[in-house]
């Protein structure tokens, strides 16, 4: 059941419709998918196709390009309900279909852009955002991938790591240095790169959680793309990517986390009402009941923060560092809530027969990617502090 009281009937119908499909098509096979590929996990393309047929892939494609053009609040409500079934699938499904705005910013013709829009909405075009490298995590400016101009083409060389959807994608949004003689803000550019241009998929990672989201290295060796595959302006890629990640990306991404928290809370309450010790339900024991009350409070506070931020973003407000606030606060709350759910179930919470240990494993990564929570705290504090007027200029 949808928990957001301010959702419209249309939003409820869309969100609950998505959850119903996953309950039928995905839930019965989650355990097998988690253990597939020697424990690395597997993204279920059969479920992907079912969801795409129902119109849920590429939800942000604008109406003028034939899409639903759903606003960020509606997208997040749908993602939250989906994540209650599986956050890994939801994370991959949402992100693989969300990059049409970047394609719109390329130099492709309108006819080519329309073909991309159609391919995305059909569930046939799956994207992968490639920025992280072995030596460039929180400090993206340390990346070593380069793109060198050669006539009317750019030649890309480098290796990206921890690329979500790398193994299943057929196009990539790639950040590369185009001019190392200037600052990162003027020397990094984003490119649209189709897989058939020679992109190689490297090692597939065996992660702690989020198993249904496949993660790998993506390798570029003399991969050539035409000039019209530049996204935005040459040299402006860092600014573009930071805007994409820090606002809509970080905020909408926390809807996956919120779905996890709600699922963990629901399972803890269900168990605590059934399990009896010392002659009564364990939910009636004060110590445990207080822990569950805290789980509920954190989840509702997270929901209020998320949809307040997304509503402001939808309405064109300058949200400042609220994307960072959402990312830091909600992921910390969800990690604590999923951990408490394991505690609530006691020994049963620690075994795989119950889903709460999976919720805890899935939740952890949200404190790490899209900028660690330590980086988010630094971003928030720097914005509050401003420049020190007495600082010595270097």
Write a structural description:
The chain has 13 helices and ten strands. α11 packs antiparallel against α13. By secondary structure, the chain is of the alpha+beta class. The chain starts with 8 loop residues before the first helix and ends in a 9-residue tail after the last helix. The chain is globular, with a radius of gyration of 22 Å.
Essential attributes:
single chain; 394 residues; alpha+beta; 4-stranded mixed β-sheet; 4-stranded antiparallel β-sheet; 13 helices; 10 strands
What distance lies between the first and last C-alpha atoms, to the nearest angstrom?
57 Å
Number of helices: 13
Give the overall silhouette: globular
Oligomer: single chain
Mean pLDDT: 94
Radius of gyration: 22 Å
Number of strands: 10
Biggest pleated-sheet summary: 4 strands, mixed
- Fraction of residues in H or I helices: 40-55%
What portion of residues belong to β-strands?
Answer: 5-15%
Uncertain stretches: none
Strand order of the largest sheet: 1-4-5-8
The secondary-structure element order is HHHHHHHEEEEHEEEEHEEHHHH
| Derived structural class | alpha+beta
